[in-house]
Amino acid sequence: MIVAFLCQNCAQGAANTAGVQRMRYSDEIHIVRVPCAGRAGAREILHAFNNGAEAVAVIGCCFGACHFSDANLITLRRVKIVKKFLVEMGYSTDCVTMYTSRAAEGDTIVGDFEDILERKYDPETPPCPGGAK
Amino acid sequence: MAQSYSLFLGCIMPNRYPAIESTTRFVLDKLGIEIKEMERAGCCPAPGVFRSFNKPDWMVAAARNLAIAEANGADLLTVCNGCFGTLFEVNHALKNDEELKKDVNARLADLGYHVEANQEVKHIAQVLGFDIGPYGIRDYLKRKVRLRGAIHYGCHFLRPFHLKQIDDPEDPTILEDYFEALGVELIDYRRKHACCGAGGGVRAGHIEVSLEMLGEKMAAITEVGAEAILDICPFCHLQFDTGQKSLNEKFGTNFNVPVIHISQLTAFAMGLDDIGLEYQTIAPDFKLEAVEL
Amino acid sequence: MSVFKNPPCVLDSGKRDPTIEETLKAAGFDPNLCIQCGTCTASCPSGRWTAMRTREVMRKAAFSIEVVLSDPDIWLCTTCYQCYDRCPRDLQVTDAIIALRNLASARGFISDKHRKTVDLLHKTGHAVPINDRIRKIRKELGLPELPPTVYCYPEELEKLGKTLFQLPPRPEDHDEEEER
Amino acid sequence: MSKSEKKGKQRKTRKAKNKDEPAEQERPRVGVFVCHCGENIAGVVDVKDVAEFASHLPNVEYSTDYLFMCSKQGIELIQKAVKEHGLNRTVVASCSYEQHWPTFAKAISDLGLNPHMHTQVNIREWCSWVTDDKKAATEKAKRMVAAGVARASKKEPVATRKIPITKRTMVVGGGVAGLRAAMDLAELGIPVVLVEKETSIGGHMTMLNKTFPTNECPMCTVSPLLNGVMSHPDIEVLTLSEVTNVEGTMGHFVVEVTTKPRYVHDNCTSCGRCADVCPVEVENEWDHGFGMRKAIYKPFPQALPSVFTLDTKHCIDCGSCVIVCPVDAVDFSMTKEERTFEVGTIVVATGYEEYDPTEITAYHYGHPDIITQLQMERMLAPTTLTKGKIVRPSNGEVPKTVVVVQCVGSRNDQVGNEYCTGVCCMFGIKNAGIIKDHLPDTEVYFCYIDIRTPGLYYEEYYKRAQKKGIRFIRGRPSTITPDPTGDKIRVEVEDTLTHMPMCIEADLVVLSAGMVAPRGFGKLSAKLELLRAKEGFAKEYHVKMGPVRSSRDGVYLAGAIQGPKDITQTVAHAGGAASAAAQPLVQGFLEKRMDTAVIDEELCISCLGCVTTCPVGAISVAEGEKPKVNDVACKSCGACVPACPVGAIQIRNFRDSQLNAEVSALLSVAAELEGGDE
User: Fold this and answer.
1) Between D24 and D567, whose confidence is greater?
2) Nearest CB to D362: which of B170, B189, B223?
3) CA–CA separation, D169 vs D342, rounded Å?
4) Closest CA to B121 of B93, B142, B147, B102
5) How far is C116 from chain B (nearest CA, A)?
6) Residue C177, domain member (yes or no)
7) Which residues pair with A57 in a beta bridge?
8) Could you tell me which residues come within 8 angstroms of residue D108 by beta carbon, excluding any fewer than 6 positions away?
9) What pLDDT score does D108 carry?
10) Which range among B161-175, C159-173, D387-401 shows the weakest confidence by mean pLDDT?
11) Are D72 and D163 in contact (CB under 8 A)?
12) Could you tell me if C84 lies within 8 Å of chain D, comparing CB atoms?
C-alpha cells in the first residue's frame, strides 16, 4: 500500500484532473488530503511506514507556484531529512519522495504515482521499513 | 600559443575559385593563425542538395569531416556558407543529442572515423568580422581600397538564427563594419538579404529559376551603381560570377559587376596584389584601386 | 457513370498518405500548427518567380496529399531559411521541406540533374569537381595542383560511395517531362 | 508489527497531553453514505458492498447507498438519517472535496451540526475513474471509506469567526478601469484611495482619438468619469504615486505609497504662463513622438488634476516659471512623500502597455514612417504637431498608400506572445477607416491573418470599412523594409486568397501592436504577492468563475491587467472588480474559518521552529512569551506542524492525531482485506 500526501491545491487538482481524464494508475495508491505539502513531515511519513506503508509520496505544487509562499520547498527539505533517517535505520531512501504536479495536467501526477510504484518494487534496493516484500 | 584552425576547403573554393583559397591562406598567415590541413576531407556535403536526398547520410558524411578536424585538434574553419551551414548544424546536432551521436558514430566506425563534436565550427567572416574585428584588422592593413561595394551575406552564415546566433539576419552589421574598415563605401540595395538563388539544389535542378532569382538581385545591385559585389561564400561567388554571364546570354542583359570574396579583399588590403580576379568570368580586367594609409 | 462519381477537383479524403504528416512530425514540424498566414510565401525568393507557394506546400503536407512529393515545388526551395526565421508560429518550415524531399527521394522522385550531382560526389568526393583549367590556375597561384581532399584517396572514395547516398530508382510511371 | 504498535501507543499517550485537543466530545456516531453517481461510481465500484462493509466499521451507526447523493432527494436522505439515528458526523463517499463538500456540509449545518463534522471521501476521481478492475476498485473504495470514517470519528467542530475590517479600498492605476472601479466603490459609500503613477489620470483612453464601433470621441466619453472621480468626496486621488510596500491580509492591508514631488503646488490655476516662458522643449511622452512639451507641462490640455508638473530631468533651473507664476505655485523645494494607508481591499487596475515592435527586426520599426496604432491615434489627435492631419512623419507629405499590419507582437510564438490580443482587429479597422475617410484618394491596405470581430456591431463595423474600399489582404507581411533607392516602405506579403505574393510600396505603415503586461508590473505583483500568468498579466483566481479575483484574498483585478480587453470589456470587468472588492466592506466583516493553527502553551518549548517556518508570517513571539498565532493571517497550510519537535502546534482538523487515525485505519483495513482474501 502506498500513501500519497497530496496538497489541496495543485496536487489534488491534478489527481482530480487525472480522474476526469480517466487516466489509469494502480489501486495501491491511496491519497491522503493535506492542506499543503508542508503539512506532511517526518512524523506523518514515519507513522505511515510504521503502520505498514510500502512507500510514501508527498506531492505539492510546482516550485515557485506554491499557494502558501514556498511551503513546498520546506517539504522538500523535510523529505530529504527523512531520507537521512532512513539511511541511518538501514533502509532504502527510495521509498519516500517529494513530487510536484500541475493541477491542469493529470499526467504529471500519474507520472509521480508510477515513479513511486517503481521505487517500491525495485528488487535491487533493500526493503522499506514497512514493506514485508 | 598561436591560434590554429583546421581549414575546410569544400568543393567550389579549391575546384573553381582557387584564388579564394590562396588569399585565405595568405590572410590567415598574416594574422598569425596556423592552418592545419584536413587530409581526406570531401564535400561538406552541401546542405541543400545532399541533405534533401538523405538527411542521415548527409549527417554521416558531415560528421566524417568533423572527425578529421577533431583529429587535428583544432576548431574547424570554413570559407563557405554552405559548408558552414552543414558542418555547424551537424556539429550542433551531435553536441546536443547523445543518441544521435551514438547512431552516427556507429556508421562512422565502418568508415574508420569517430566524432566527439567537442569543437567549434567557424566561418572566416566570423574570424575576420568578430574575432579580429573592424578595429583589430587595422593593425594588419597595408592599404585600403577605394570601392563602392554591395554586400551579399548569403543565407547559411546567419540563418537559421536560433542555431547560429551570430548577428540579426534581418539587419546584420558584422560585414558592414568590417568592410568599412577596409575602406569600402557601402551601398544598400533592395532585397539585400535575399538569396542569390543558387542553394537548395535549385541551381543544379532548376537553373532557369536560379538565374531569375539572381537576375532580381543583380538588377537591384546594378540600379544603385555598385562597383563590386562583396560576398563570403564561394557558391554565391560562383552564382554571381558565372550567373551574370548566363543572364546576359539568356536575357540580353548587360550585367558586369565583379564579385569579390572577403578573403580576397582582405588579402588585397594586406598588400597582396594578385587576388585572382583575372581568373573570374565577369570583369577579368577589373583592378582594385588602393588608397595608401 | 463511374466517370462522374469522383470529380477530379474534389479532394478525396480517403486518398491520403499519413506517412507525410508523420514524417514531418518526426522532423519536429507539426503542419497542423500552421495558421496559413503566408509569411513564408512572402519571404520566399523562389515563390516570386515560380508557382511554388510555401504555405500551400505546408497545407498539402498537413493534409497528407501525396502529390506534394511528386510535385517539383519542393525542389524550388533554396533553403535560404527566411521563412523558418520569420514564422510567427516558430515552425521549422525549411526543415519540413527537407523532410518532404527526403521522403520524395526515398520514393525515387529525384530529378536526373540531381542524380548527376550525386554521381559526381560518388566519383570525385565533390559536388563540384576539379578540371584542367583550375589545375593550371592553382599552380599559378602557388597552390598544390590537387587539394589534399578525398579525391586523392580513391579507395576511401569508393568506400564512401558505397555507403552513402544510394538513390532509389525513379518510379516508372513518373517521367522527367511531367516535372516541369 | 508489534514494535510499531508500541510506538503508536507511546505517541498517543504523549498526544493526550495536548490541552487544546478537543474536549471530550460526545461519542462519535457516524453515518456513511455511498453515492452511485449514476454509473460513474457504481459502474466500477460495488457500492452496495462498500455500504455494507462500512456498516461494520467502528463508530458507524448507519450506512447506505443512493443513486445521486447530491440531488435534493439524496440530501433529504442524509438529513433524515442524521435525525433518525442521532448521527453527529457524516461521511459521503462520492466525488471531490471541491465539488460537493460544501453541499453536504450545508446539509448537516442546516440541522444544527457543525459543517466541519462532514467528511468527503472521493471514490470517483480517485477511485472509480482511475481503476479498471472492478474488484480492485471496490476494495480500494472500502479502504478509502474506512480511512474516512476513522478521520470523521476524530473530527472537531470549527467555528467561523467574524472579523471586522477596514472600510476603505485602494485602487492602483488611474486608467479607465481604475476610474470605473473607484467611482463604483465610492458610490457605495466606500472611501477610495486612487494611486496613479503618471502625472494625470485617464490612462490610455485619453490618448485615443476615436473609439469603435461608434467612432465616438473617447475624451468626451470619459471626461464625466474623470471629473467625477476628481471631485468625489470619498475618492482621494494620488498622482505621481506608486505602491512601495504592502503588509497585512484581507480586511486589513497596510499599504505604503510613495509620491514623487510635482514641484508645483495644488493651488496651480493651470494658467500656463510657466510653460510659455520655459525655454526647454522636449518630446511629450503622452504623444508618442507626435508632440512637444516644455520642462514644466501638462501632458494634454484636459489633463486632471489640472496642475502643471515640473520635469526636473530636463529643467535647467532658470527659475523663469517661479517668477511668472501668479499664485507662487512652483516650488523647487518639494520632496518625495511617503504615506501609509489602511485599507480593507485592493483593486489592481494597472492596465496594459503597447507591444514594442522593435523586437521584430524584419518590420524595421524605428523608421519614422513605420508607426504603431497608438502613435496613429496621437497623430490623429488635434492637439499634436500634425494637428490631426494624416502625414508621413518623415517629410510631412500626405501618404498615397497606407498599409495597416495586424498581429504585431500578438499570435507570435517567436516573441513569446502566443495569445491573440483580440482588440487589434477592431482598432485596426477603425483607424484604416478613419484614414480612408480623411484621405479618400489614398489606397489603404489591411494585412491580417484572421479578422476577429465577435460581438454586436463589430462585424457591421468591419463591413462598413469594406464598403469604404479598404483593401483587405489575408496575409501576414514577411518584411517591412525602407526602400534604399527611394523613400517608400516596401511591404512584402502574400495574399493567401489569390496565392499571390505582392509588394506594396507604402508611404506609411501602421503596425497594430498587441497589448502586453505593463513594464514594472513584476515589482508591484511581488509586493502584492500576486501570481502572474506566463504572459505577464496578473492571474485571475479562476478563468471562468473568478475573473476579477486575484490569486490573493482581498486583492481584485480590474481591466486589462488580467488580460487584453477593449474599453467596453474593461469597464464591465472593473465594475465586477469593484463589486467584489466592496462586498466584504459593505458587509462590514469577514467570515473566517478557524481551522487555523493552535499552540498548546504547556507543551511548547519555545524553540520558535513554527515562527521561522510559517510562510505567511502569521506566528509571532514577544519577549519572554510563548509564540502566538494570528488567526486572521493564518492560512491553515500546516507547514508549522511538522516543524514542532513536540507536537505543540496543530492545525484544527488536520491534527497529528486526526491525520494519523486516517492513515492507520487505511493501512490496517488494507491488511485485513488482504488477509481475508487469503
Assistant:
1) D567
2) B170
3) 8
4) B93
5) 9
6) no
7) A4, A97
8) D78, D79, D82, D90, D115, D117, D118
9) 94
10) C159-173
11) no
12) no
On whether any CB of chain D is under 8 Å from the CB of B188, the answer is yes
Per the prediction, chain D carries an average pLDDT of: 91
Last residue of a domain, one of C57, C82, C106: C106
CA distance B258 to B240: 8
Percent of chain C topping pLDDT 70: 93
Interatomic CA distance for residues D460 and D541, integer angstroms: 35
Interface test with A, best of D637, D656, D674 (most A CBs within 10 A): D637
Structure confidence at residue A67 (pLDDT)? 76
CA distance D510 to chain C (A): 18
- The predicted pLDDT at position D55 comes to 94
Mean pLDDT across the stretch B255-271? 96
Architecture in CATH of A2-121: 3-Layer(aba) Sandwich (3.40)
How many Å apart are CA D105 and CA D115, to the nearest integer? 4
Of D476, D493, D496, the CB nearest to C88: D476
B195, B241, C146, D561 from B17: Cα distances, Å: 20, 10, 13, 60
Domains D27-159 and D167-244+340-352+517-591 in one fold: no
Asked, for residue C89, whether it belongs to a domain, the answer is yes
B202 contacts C78? CB cut-off 8 A? yes
Task: Please state, for a pLDDT cut of 90, what percent of chain D lies above it.
Answer: 82
With an 8 Å Cβ cutoff, are D501 and C88 in contact?
A: no
Q: What is the mean pLDDT of residues D445-454?
A: 96
Residue to test with chain A: of D158, D667, D669, D672, most A Cβ within 10 A: D667
| Residue C32, domain extent | 15-106
Residue from B148, B161, B168, B170 to probe the interface with D (highest D Cβ count within 10 Å): B170
pLDDT at residue D302 greater than cutoff 70 = yes
**Dihedral class, residue D653 (left if φ above 0, else alpha if ψ from -120 to 50, else beta):** left
pLDDT digits (tens, 9 = 90+) for D84-94: 999 999 999 99
Could you tell me if B61 and B162 lie in one domain? no
Q: Give the residue from chain C lying closest to B272, CA to CA.
A: C141
Mean pLDDT of D465-469: 95
For the record, the C-alpha cell of A31 comes out as 491519497
Is C117 in the same domain as C86? no
Res A69 pLDDT > 80 = no
Please, do chains A and C touch (3+ CB pairs < 8 Å)? no
